Amino acid sequence: MPALLPTPPPRPTATTAGFTLMELLVTLAILSLLFALVVPNLGALVPSARLQGSGNIIKRELDWVRSEARIQGKRMVMEFDLDRARWRIVYPPEQRLTRDQDLSTLEERPDHWQELEPDVVFAGATDARSGMTSKGIYRLIFDEYGFTADQIVALKLKSDAEQIWAFSINGLSGRITVSESEQGELPTLQLVNEASF
Questions:
Q1: How far apart are CA 11 and CA 29, in angstroms?
Q2: Phi, psi of 28 (to 5 degrees)
Q3: Strands annotated E in the chain
Q4: Is-contact 122 157, C-beta < 8 A?
Q5: R_g (Cα) of the chain, nearest Å
Q6: Residues 25/28/29/30 CA torsion (nearest 10 deg)
Q7: Minimal CA–CA distance to 161: which of 47, 79, 59?
Q8: pLDDT recorded at residue 25
Q9: Is the pLDDT of residue 177 over 90?
Q10: Is 168 left (phi over 0), alpha (psi -120 to 50) or beta?
């Protein structure tokens, strides 16, 4: 019986190396479909990110102001210009810039107005005693122990007034609770009387 010779392995052909034109066209069609679905929704994410960004900056500054009031044993104030979409920290008189000083003599935190992000405005502010206000200057005051009244400050988008980002401040604990709404709902505070304790 004759000996069997081993068969050589098959040679690679031109069709097994690389992609076919059909595979490339299908891949491009799938990518185009994904971009068509994702890109229009990116526009909705950017404004809400601005809203959250402005709110988080103010929230961080509120924590700092409360802490400074307690550490220094001095009354500290944050002012919110509800008409012009800006805010600032108001320092005690002995920490403010006098005529014979320049900015380099103060801390790194200036007491000038800080603008909110573009398209972000104040929806309003309130404490438990007065109703929601959306005009004028709203003052949030921390006493020398870092306490304040329970308060709410709310932000919204100019382009979409239904998007609300608000934070509630618990005056005694200093805890800040964030709430978001896409239906334009503002949070409310309940007045707690002395008899409740």
A1: 33
A2: -65, -35
A3: 76-81, 86-90, 114-115, 120-127, 137-142, 151-157, 164-169, 176-181
A4: no
A5: 30
A6: 130
A7: 47
A8: 93
A9: no
A10: beta
Sorted by where each begins, the domain ranges of the chain are 30-92+109-187
Local confidence band at 31 (pLDDT 50, 70, 90 cut-offs): very high
Q: Mind giving me the DSSP string for 76-107? A: EEEEEETTTTEEEEE--GGGS--TT--GGGS-
Q: Which pLDDT tens digit goes with each residue over 32-65?
A: 988 888 776 665 567 778 888 888 899 999 999 9
DSSP lists the bridge partners of residue 168 as: 152, 177
How deeply is 163 buried, as exposed, middle or buried, from its count of CB atoms within 10 A (0-12, 13-18, 19+)?
Answer: buried
Distance CA 66, CA 86 (A): 19
- Strand partners of residue 179: 166
Cβ-contact 85, 121 below 8 angstroms = yes
Q: How many residues does the chain have?
A: 197
0.70 surpassed by pTM: no
For the domain spanning 30-92+109-187, the CATH number is 3.55.40.10
User: Among 4-13, 73-82, 116-125, which stretch is predicted with the lowest mean pLDDT?
Assistant: 4-13
Report residue 114 as tokens.
Answer: 């800080």
pLDDT of residue 99: 45
